[in-house]
Each structure stands twice: as C-alpha cells, then as structure tokens.
Amino acid sequence: MASNKYTERGVINSLPYSGEQGTTTSLTFGDIRYRKSKHPYKDFQETQIYDLQEEPYRKSTKTVLGLPRRDARIIAGLMLLASIVRLYRISEPTSVVFDEVHFGGFASKYIKGRFFMDVHPPLAKLLITLAGVIGGFDGNFDFKEIGKDYLEPKVPYVTMRLMPGILGIFVIPISYLTIKLAGFSTISASLVATLLIFENGLVAQSRLILLDSPLILFTAFTVLMWVNFHNHYRRPFSFWWWFWMAMTGVGLGLTVSVKWVGLFTIALIGLSTIKGLWDLLGDLRISPEVWAKHFLARALCLILIPTVIYMFMFAIHFLILTNSGDGDGFMSSEFQQTIGGHGMDDTPIDIAYGSKITIRHLNTQGGYLHSHDHSYPGGSKQQQITLYPHKDENNLWIINNKTKPEIPFDEQDPIWIENGAIIRLEHITTNKRLHSHEVRPPVTDVDYQNEVSGYGFPGFEGDDNDFWRVEIFDHEKSDPKSGERLRTLHTKFRLVHVLTGCYLFSHSVKLPEWGFEQQEVTCVKGGSVPKTIWYIETNSHPTLPLDAETVNYRKLGFFGKFFELQRVMWTTNNGLTDSHPYESRPLSWLLMKRGISFWGQDHHHIYLIGNPIIWWSSTAALAIFVAIEIIILLRAKRGYLDHLNVTKEFYESHASFLFIGWFLHWFPFILMSRQLFLHHYFPALYFAILLFGVVFDFFTTPLSTRKRASVALIYLVMVLYVFRLFSPLTYGRPWIKSDCNSLKWISTWDFDCNQFYNSYDQFSIDADLKALKISPTGESSSLTVLNSPDSSEKSEAAETHAMQDDSNDALML
Amino acid sequence: MSQVRQRQGGDNKLKVGEKTIHEEKRKESKTPNEDEETKKKVVVSPGRDKQISNAVLFFLTVSSFITRFWNIGYPAEVVFDEVHFGKFASYYLQRTYYFDVHPPLAKLMFAGVGWLLGYDGHYLFENIGEDYIKNNVPYIGLRILPATLGALLVPIAYLIMIESGYPIITAAFAAGLVLFDNALITQTRLILLDAMLVFFMLCTLYSYIRFYKLRLREFTLDWWFWLVVTGVSLSLTTSVKMVGLFTFATIGVAVLVDLWELLDIQRGLTMRQFRRHFFARSIGLIFTPLAIYLFWFYLHFAILNTSGPGDDFMSPEFQETLHGNIMTFQSHDIRFNDTITIKHKDTSVFLHSHLDKYPLRYDDGRISSQGQQITGYPHEDSNNYWRVKPAIPFFDQERPENDVIKHGDYILLEHVNSLSHLLTHDVASPLMPTNQEFTTISVDDDSRYNETMFQVLIVNGEPDTKWRTKASHFRLVHYDTKVALWTHDAPLPDWAYKQQEVNGNKNNLEKSNYWFANEIIGKNVTEDVQPKKPTRELAFLRKFVELQRLMISHNSGLTKPHPYSTGPINWPFLVRGISFWTKDSTREQIYLLGNPFTWWIGVGALAVFVGVTAADAVSRRRGILPIIDPVRNRLYNSAGFFFIGWFFHYIPFFLMGRSLFLHHYLPAVICSYLLAAAVFNFMFVNSINYPISASATKKKITRVVLTAGVGVMTILFGIALLGIASVFYIFFAPLTYGTPGLDVSGVLNRKWLETWDFHFAK
After folding, report:
1. Residues of chain B contacting A789 with CB distance shorter than 8 Å
2. Closest CA to B579 of B73, B27, B55, B79
C-alpha cells in the first residue's frame, strides 16, 4: 500500500517507458525510489529472490531433484527428524482417542457405503478410508466411544493413523521451502521447520485419525505454490507461471475439500490476487486486453480449478455412499430417493375417497404418519399415532368421507378431494380412525397441544372427533389442479381438526421407549405453520384405471444433491452450539490458555497442548510485527523515509502477507458462535510460526551467519527442552504426579495430574501384571472423570438437528 | 494572509490516490478549469440567494410541522411501544425504580413534559389499544415533544446540505425526502425514542460540519464552540439509545482522518501543535460527552428513589438504596440451626434434593457414586429445606448455639426431609466430566465429615458481615476440594425428572456461583423485626457501572423473537413494515412503512455513489481523471461522510444477535437521504459552491472560486421528484396516520409487495 501513495499521474508520465510491454509489475513505478534516488534504480528484491528458474543460478549450483544439494540435504535431515518425532510409538494408545470416534467411524461407513452426514467435506475422510482399506479394515468396528479397544477387534488403526501422520511430516519441508523461496536465510527456514517439528500440539494432532493434519498440509502447500507463482511474477504467461498458479488452485481445492476452514485460505489468496491485479491495473504499459488476460487466467486457475476439485470430491462421496445409513434423515425426500433402499415406484397422482395413501410430514424428516397396535401409557390410553421413517404396512391409511355409513368407493367413480373437504382417515391394519381430543399429548404437555390417537372398535361408527378438514397450503406450480384438490406429492396440505380447530402437527420430539422412540404427533393450536404441513407420498385406489396418470419425486442430479448437501452441512455446522467441557474461545488461543483432554486410561493421559515457548513466541512475533508497522506508518507520516530502506520493505511485504494469512485464519472465528476448540487455531499457528521466522530473520540481519546460527540454536535448545517436558502428555507416555503438577504454569491448563501414579515404579508393576494377564486395579472414581465423551462434534448432527427443530418450535409458537 | 495560509504555501502539489480532505484549501489557487467554470451562468446572486434560501427553509419547516402535527391526537389509544416508553415516563413521575436497556435521556424528557403538564404518572400504559382519554393521560402533550423534534429534522437536513456547500435545490431535495418519509412521520409523532435519537444525530452531523468548516481558524472561540456542540450532541444521541455509539463511530472516523492529515509532515505542524489538536478533540469529543452521559444517569438515580419493578435486576446492595425495598424489611439474619431455602441467582432455582439416587451408569458409560440426587428445582417444595448447622472443627464453643452466621463461617447443610448432609467429592457430575458431583450422606455417618463442610463466602463480605436472607449473595465453597456449589441451565435426563443439574465448579470465583438464601422457614415475618434500617447509600459511579453492565447484557439478551422483527438486509429495500396499531370497527391501522419512492431513491443513491467512486478509482489507476478535482473532493469528502454515516448506522446491526426492527434503520435512512441529495447534485448540478470553509482571517475576502451552476431543468427535475414523493406520501398516509380506514381494495391497492402484511387485507 505504501507505494500507492506515490503513484501519481505526473510521475508515471514523466518516466521513460522501458518498452517491455507487460513484463514487469507496476510496483516499482511511481515508487519514491525513482524520484529521490540519483542512481539508477536496482531492485534488490529481484536479486535476492531464490528462483529455481533463474538460469545463471541453476548453472552455478549442483542440484538434486531441482533443489540445490545443500537444501536437499537439510530437507532430508528435517524429514528424518520429523518422522521420528511424529511417528514415535504411533501405535499407542491402542484405543480410540478423542475425535477418532467420528473420523474413524466415517471410514467404516465409507467402507460399508452407508450414507452419513458430516459437517466437513469428504477429502480427508476419504484419505483415512483409503488408509483403512490398504490396512485391510473391513468396516466392522464402530469407533463408538473414546477408550474403546482397537487390538481385540483387529482394527488396522496404525495404518489409519499413519495417513495423517505422514501427511503431517510433509508440512516440514514445505515450510522450509516457503521461507527459503521467499528469499530468507537458510537458518530462518531451518528454524521454522524445526519449530514445526517440535510443536507439541501439532505432534499430538497429527498422529491421530483427525482431519487437521491434512488441512494444515494443504494450506501450507497452497502458500508455497503461491510463493513460487510470485517468483514468476515478472514472466507472465510463461509455462512455470501457469504451472504454479494452477497448483495454487489445486492447493486451494484440496484445502477446502478437507474442512471449510479452507475458505480462509481462499480469502488470503483472493486478497493477494486482488492486490496483484490492482497493481497491474496501475501499470499503464499494460493494455486493458492484457489485463483482462491476467484476470481471466486467475479466474481460471484460482476459481475454476478449486471448484472442480471440490465438486469432484463430492462426486466420489456420492459414488461410494450408495446405501441407506444414519445420514438419510437429514436430507429431503427427493435426495433420499437417490440413496439405496429409498427408491419409490411411480404412484397414481389422483386422490379420491377410498384411496389407500401414505402421508409424510414435510418439515421434519420424521417420516410417515404411522400407527400400530400399542396404546399410549397415559392420557387417553388410546392407540398411538407417530411418525415413522421407514416404509411399513402400518403407514397405510384410507381416506373416507364424513358420512356414516361410508360410501362403497369401489363401486362408483372416484370422487376427488377438494380443498376444504372434511375427511376421516382410517388406519388399515388396526381399523382405528385418526382422532383427537382435549387431552394433553404424552410428551409435549402444554396447553395449546392436544393428543392425537387412533380410536374406534368394530361396530362403532366413530364420533365427530374423527373429522379433519383438508386445507391446501401450497402446490406444485406446474400442476394447477393440485392447488384445487389433493394430488400425490404435488399438494402440500394441512389437516384441521374440525371440532377443536387445531392442526395435525409433528416436531422432532421423540416418544420414549413405549413409543419405540418414534416421533410425536400432536394437534396444535396456532403452532408453527411449517410443522403442520403434510403431503401424500403413495396412493392406490380400486377404481382408478391402470393407465391413470402417475407421479414420482423429481430426480435429483449431481448438482441438486451437491447443493442440498452443502446447505444441510451449513445449517448443521451453525447448529453446533452446545457447550463442550473443553471448548475455548479464539482470544484465549493466542496465549494458549487451555488445551483439550484427548484421552485418559490406565494412568496415561493425552492432552492437546502446544509447546508454550513456540506458541508464545509466535504470538509475540505477531505483536512485534504490528508494533513495527505502526511505528513505520507514523514515522513516514512525519517525514522519516524509512521506506527508502529496501530491505525493510522486502521484509514488510512478506511479513504482511503472512500476517494477513494469520489474521484471516484466526479472526473469523471470533464472529462464529459455534463451539470452538484449540485445534481450530492450528492453520493460523502455521502462519504465525512462519512470521516468527521472518521476524527472526529481520532482527538478525546484522549478525554474521555464525552468530545468527548460534542464536537460533540457543532458542532451539529451549524449545527442545520444553518439548521434552510436555511430551508425556503429547504421546500419552508414563508420567508421575509431581512432574505433572510442576508443569501447570498456567492455572487454566486443566490436564489431570491426579491420574498419574506417584512414581514410575508403579508403571513397571503394571506392566508386570499385564504380562501375567492380570488387569491393573485402578481407582475407579478418578477414572470416571476422564473417560468422557471429549469429542468435539459428538453425536454430531443428530442432536443439534433435533435441538434446532425445537428452538424453531418455540420461535413460531 | 495569515500564518496558516503561509504554512500551506509550499503545498500545492497534487496528491492523487488518497483521500485528501484538505484539498480544498490548496485549490484556492487557480485550477485549470476555473476560468471555464466561472464563466458558466450563475443563476442567482449571493445576496438574493440568502433570501430565497430562508424562504425555502421557512416553507419546508412549516410543511414539516403540518405533516407531523396533523391529527396528532389520533388515535387516542396506546400505540405499539408507547406501552414501554409511556410507562417509563410514568415511573419517573412516580419515582419508582424501573429497568430498561436504553439510557435515560429521552425518557426523562417525556417525564419532564408530563411533569410540566401536571401529569402524575398514575397510568401504566399496560396494553396496546387502551384508551388514553378514559385514563386521563395528557398523551397529546407527550406526543408533541417527539413530533416537534421530528418536524425539526427537515430544516436541519436542509441546513446540513447548505452548510456543506450545496445549492438550494439540492438542500431542498434532501429536506423534501425527509419531509415526505412516512416512516419518519409515523415514528416521530408517537411516544417513542427515535425522534430524539435522529434529531440529536442530525445535530451532531450539522455541528461537526460547522466545526470542520472552521478548521483554518483553529482554536478560535467559534472553533471551540462548534467542537463542544458536536461533543454535546453526540452525548445526547448516545444518552437516548446506545445506537448513538454508531454516531460516535461516524464522527470518530472523520476525526481520525482529519488528525491523520494534520499529522502529515507536509502540513507543517510541529508535534506540539499536533498534540494541541489531539487534546482539544479529546476534550470536546470524549470528555464532554462522557460527563453529560453520566449526568443523565445521575439524574436517573436521583429521581428514581423508590422501590419498583426494576429492583430484581439489581444487586442487593443497590436495592437497599431504594425506599421501601424488600431488602429493608424482609431480610433476616440467618442463625445456626435455622432452616432455609437456597436460590441460585442466575437461574432462580432452589437447591433441591429428593430420595432418588444417581443411576449407576450414565448413557456415555461413566459411572456415578449412586448417591442421592441434588438438583435445581424452580418451585417451592419442602425438599428445598436445608438446616444450617455449624461445622464442629471450626465452631468456636464460646458462640451461642443459635449465633448469627458470618462471612467465612464453615457450615453443614442438612437436607431436612431425608436427614442427610450435603456432600461433594471427586466424582464427575452427570453432565459435565470436568465438574464435581454433589450428593448427600446420612447425618449419622461421620466417616466423611470433611467432605460435608462448606464455607459461606458472602459477596463483598468483610469478616463481620452477617449472612442474611435475600440481601446477601454468597458462594458456597467446599472445604475439602475447594469447588463452589454451582448450577446451570441444563436439565438432567428423565431419571432426575428433567430438573436442573447441580455440580461443583472448580473455578470457584465465577459470578455464576452466586446463591442467596431465600427465606428462613418457620420464621414469622413479624417476629425478629429489626429497627427499620436507614436506606443504604451507594456511590454514584458504582451504581452507574452496575446499571450500564446490566443494560448491555440485557440488550444483547433481547433475542426473543417478535412477529414483526426483521433482519437488517430487508431494511433498505423496505421489504416489510411493522404493524403498530389496529382498530377493527373502523378498519383503521397504523403500519410503519417508509415512503417506498424515497427509500428506493436512497438505495439507488448508495449504489450510484459506490459505482461512481469505484469507477473513479479504476480510471485514476489507468491515468484518466474523469472528474474535476473540486467536484471530486466534494464527492469524496461530503458524500463520503454521509456514506460513512449510513454505513456505521447500518452495518453493525448485522453483527447483533438481538431481535431487530425496521425502525432501527431510521438513522441510516436519513444519511441515505443526505447522500441521495449529494448524488443528485453530482448528477444534475454543474459544479459546486467552492470553497466553503471559512478563511483563516476574519477579514472578508472574495474567495469564491466556483459557484454551482443550477439550470432551470435541474430545479424542475428536483421539484418533479419531490412531487412524486409527495404523491406517494399522500397515498400511504392512511397507514401513517391511522385514519381514515381503508376497505379491502384500498388495502390491497397499497400492498405492493407480498411481504407488506397489512391488516384488513381480506
């Protein structure tokens, strides 16, 4: 931004054009350096950039796989170190840890092909599934709760953990190259990579079956590609320019296919792109046509490619999940038609008295109006009426008119059911009629709701409480007839109980065990309109000709399914507002005030907590950067031309990119009301650590390489020491109470020291006992504290869905 | 030329690409276009201008009063939120304490008018539609206050535009849009706060513009005067509603931009001079407003000295400052061996226990102690009775058996019905693995005595503070594990009858740990009568901070959905209104709905402004200068200021969780009208009056560089637009004034959008 201030027309005009149309950026033009400096301007940035395509550079260095040999050696070393740190005893613990509950569970659902609903896009889960398949996992393990044993059912959990584990390792070389290719010193690059290796939080997170490791990898990958692209800024439309930009797009697509947090990465690259285009726009030597070309190239690579990748992942997702599963209930009936086991044959469209029909509730996914030969335990003690999600004989009803006795419908032409008709519904298998009266419903015991029951016995003609009036609420616009009379699928209607004026209603409140946990049906006065709307799904009538007009659900194509799933994911994600014992807010992440208890068993404990030294120094780097920026800004305003210092500007531009990256991956969380956890900070932490590297590089510029290396080394020793201190919590290794208590540097770190023994001897005794096949005796009471459902999105959507529905109820009433 | 002018001497350089508010000054030297511009016909001479302007102003003001005051006594019934604000005025007159989320100024003003009219505040405005005349309320007098302020919006809008250097037709256009806005009329002729809010907000804009025009006469008396007036109006705006903070943001941004320019080395100010500017603005725009804001609260507390419906919101200390408060005569000392009920402060449930046990295993597989359940229960019940017994290891034998309990004493709580002691231990609670389970243990079992001891810690307690019912909030901290008795709004499963979970909070300092003893069972109220205590005094600032905090938390807590609440995205497009009042017999209704023509002009102007500035930025980037500098500066500085005003009075609503209504958009809609006039000027008026800032010396110098060239067509066009606006206004007037009633076709004719849910449409 600083350069804009000096970009003014007069200056631009006064500059001699260099003649190389469209080959350089505008950044340098209008720069104060042009005006103030008597010497020919030399762009330091140009020479400092470590550019693999720079011909002279390439000739002068021996390379391995396109990398200078020294870098290749360092990278190899770092990767070896990272593999040791990240994969150390990856088979421990041998039971389900934290959110492995979900992501392991999803893998088994993929293998079984059972449709499920999750708030995250599929890529990472597909990768985990792939690992499971490679390891020979058959999907017969449900990952139901934290602490469930892996060994007994022979789950290939190690292979599955290796997938995020190995992906996590690749973050290390990527971070090294990012810093290096951005033009900073080898020492800073190595420092950053080493910090990432010894960040306890990242280690703990990446060695379990969780999504964050792929997420961070793809974010890091995207940033590296973008840095590469920028190194080709001066050679637009060259092969490598295209290549790196396309790879950035691929990175974006992969990131956002893991978690929606990837949208923040898209925002970062988007902002940077806009800035770049704005700079190009100011370069008067670039014609509008060329600028349009620039624009389209970016749209192609950075919008189209990610979108295609993202959709492709969902295409695979739909391809695999062909069977009915526990996610069906979240989707619309149209969507469900595409899932195995939910298909429906065409059904006659015309409804007449005497039609045998099934009726579905529109607003909840509770299913069909249902009754069965069981009675309410309380209230009127009459037969239960519920919503039942599956196809069943007990969902069938006959529409009768109000006359007694009923007209013999099978002997005369069908009589259509117009809007306002008064009908009775008879349950076919039990011969009871749909009935309502001034009795409070079994669960929702409130004044404005009445019970709905099945009532009647042989020889009894029914009473006036069996009468319901049809009120057509909405209809398919392409079928005007369905607005006047009932037609299958096309007519959305409400049923008014004639005597009390209440509407047949259902909401996602489940009946207790005596009602088989089916959904409650009541009759409501003045309730929320959407929950009183019903439609007819299937229909048959004795006198309708065989060739009568039929109807079926609209066929959903890929895009229909895709967009519907996105919408459901979004609402579910926003609905995750339950409080969780280990949730934390974004502001507390900066200082790492609290971690997450992942797992605890047999006096071992895994607690997600970062390496405090790394964490706090990265936050300090952010603060230092902001302070420096403000000071520079104020000084510039007062006429001190700090900007003449090109090195400073170089640092500033890179640091501000990383800072904005951090900001975009952190700040939006503040605006979110859903439950948040420390691990949501990891992508932002990655940027903060890179920024730390840049700030380190900046402050140690005056030092000799040797001194610089020793400063880095001293710092690393501290980091390593602290890493070692906290490693028992990271790996779930044996530890003792006193060591644990001495590490409670902040009172809000709530890892549970009471779990540990007082001395290490106890562990060896345990081991001996285990060898003798005697289970160690634990103090049960303290154990119960930790064998808790610590999962972040536990019971996932199902519950939140129900909650949302309820709050809606309250809203409308 | 003065020093200031000289300081500007070397600063004739163009500065493109950044917003230059101070540009105008420099342009006093000849601009390239100047000759050409001045040659343009000047329609009226400056002297006559003034007369015409005054005439127009007079005409607009009179029309404004007519539109606002027409039939102001109708309906003679309580309309919409008059329920609240009328009631609050009554409370002031009765001096009974009430609680509201809005600051007191506007309500004090109503009370003041009521007092002048001799109204005694006997009527409480309980329901919409209640008759005023029957209840003998001087409602017309009360309504005259907002109607007057509402009528004055028109002349202020006019003056804002004139002061900003626009020609008469532009100013009249802005004022006309305000004049014919049905929503502003509806909202300002009833006993509601928005008239005051918008009035003070416009005063702020007006005085800031006056202040800014004097910027070359820094630190003169005039300069100081308008600076302080800006601060005062800001403060009055905020004292009406917290929305005033958005006005603060608007002025704040303008001031920051201004200061940023002053800081520029090229302006030639020394740091000392800059500091002077800085401190002058802090005095004018921060300290003055703060003092005034506090003053209204001082008045608020001074007037409301009697116990009333707002008591329950406040802390016991606060309540004791009110005459006739329950604390002063229903609060008793609690003694050992008294039986009490204990209520949680935040969730108002009693500490409860019953004979059922915790289940052996919870759904998630964790195991409980299987002890007796402790829950929170909202109703009176004998299972809420707890006897307070001294904890023997800490009990000083010297004290009598039934000594009063003081802050810091250790006690045991015996559940009277089950003869067991309250206990907590290191077992996870049913719902929260991080918190401790509470249960009970039989009184005969002394084996776990340590786990049954609790310390009573009274909030703000000293060692000799007595523990009293109702008046003392306290935390109950466990002796053994230091957790505090806590409960939260989460029901346990069926096995505990969906009662609220109670558990031990490890963070024992949290405010949600506060409980109070509700009553002493069996203690006759007349017994133990204490001499009537003098009502307590509390420092003003403490009261203020307490009330302020409550206002903010309750404001964000107003999430209860309302049938007519709407999301901010709907407002500029006028998607839906609010039904204020209906009368079935005559088919009359008041429906808050803006004049669609003027609202949509407002939105259109916003779009044009954004489009023009974006196009200007892009073309400048390409080295093309499509707009001459004086006009461009006016567009950025003046229209930009109005745009910022609109932005800050609108966008923050998107971040609010509370339920919102169309009338929250009224401050923003006025800004959009000002902007619309500026855009009108940009599109149809040739150039602008320029420069408009006062010169640095008092000496009169002819320094008009540009005068707006207003063509006849422009005037006709402006008047035509206002004519259309007036037709729309009259068309919708029955809904605005609530009379006359409309038949079905009349209602349907006006129902242009499906979402305008008028009554009597069937």
Report:
1. 364, 433
2. B79
